[in-house]
Amino acid sequence: MASSSRFFVLLAGLMGAAGVALAAAATHTGAPELLNPASNMLLFHAAALLALALGGGSSLMLLAGGGTLLLGTVLFSGDLAMRALAGVRAFPMAAPAGGVLMILGWLVTGLCGLFHRR
Question: What is the pTM of this model?
């Protein structure tokens, strides 16, 4: 397994753990409207990042798609979690920027299917 794949597996595990922790926090705090979407995005994108890492692809485009998904998810979920738990934003427009990056990451990942060679 390439080092970038191992790194994506590690980060997918951390994202999954954070997603479960935020789901628990949503249940036990008064901010489920922010923590539930943050948890969902972490869990969904952890699975996607894991699939990318274990799918055997090592192209630059696939790495870019996974990296963009990762950054977008961290920005989006991190901003929502910070608002819910600390009452502050990561920075202005962090969640929308993260959402746009997640969309771009999915598009780049999808394009990998057109250019994948065996």
Answer: 0.89
